[in-house]
Amino acid sequence: MWSQLGQVVAEFLPLAVGVALSPLPLIAAVIIALGEGGGGRASALLAGRFAGVVVVVGLFAALSELFADAGGPEVVLAVLNVLLGLAMMVFGVLSWVRRPRGDEADAPPKWMASLTGVSGGKAVGLGFTLSVANVKELAFGAGAGILIGSTLTEAPPTIAAVAVFAAIGSLTAALPVVAVLVGGERIRPALDRLHGALLRSSRTITAVVLVLFGAVLLASSFG
Length: 223
What we know:
Blueprint: H1 5-20, H2 23-34, H3 38-63, H4 73-97, H5 103-106, H6 110-113, H7 120-132, H8 135-151, H9 155-169, H10 171-183, H11 188-222
Helix pairs in contact: 1-8, 1-9, 2-3, 2-7, 2-10, 2-11, 3-7, 3-8, 3-9, 3-10, 4-8, 4-11, 8-9
């Protein structure tokens, strides 16, 4: 029952890393962590983030049976990887071309300015939304979910695989939480510097991640 779990984790690892490298959840976690009592509210954001990734991957894992008659899971995964890979590379190039420049690049989006004092409940909702309303994350989650659902046929290893994917995908958003809970006030200067660097380079990070992992998906389709 569990024999294929390690193989599945190895196959979806690039997709999980792609989710983990999404800059917006990390930026939101840093901003919330920098506020008063930020450790608890950043933990709430992390919980929402984890739940959102679980929902996306779990949904596509459950729907994978619908693709079983379309030529088998291998064909479905190959076609899906090609489509997702091409789409991500196109979105990556567009993200780079449309990135803010000059003073506009230094100005944070308006929604970020309101995060410092966000409540725990809203932080959960924000973490969930950042995981389910992002085209790149949906693409990664769809690929991983169909891979998991097509390979693992029993519930316990399937649930374990979804949980492992969500844990890896949420890893970077957990870093500010751990930093604040462990380092306290001493960590604030480092988080401030990280915040500024992420704001300046978030579009670049997104573009690079999309193009890189789009190429990985295309390569895996023809490997």
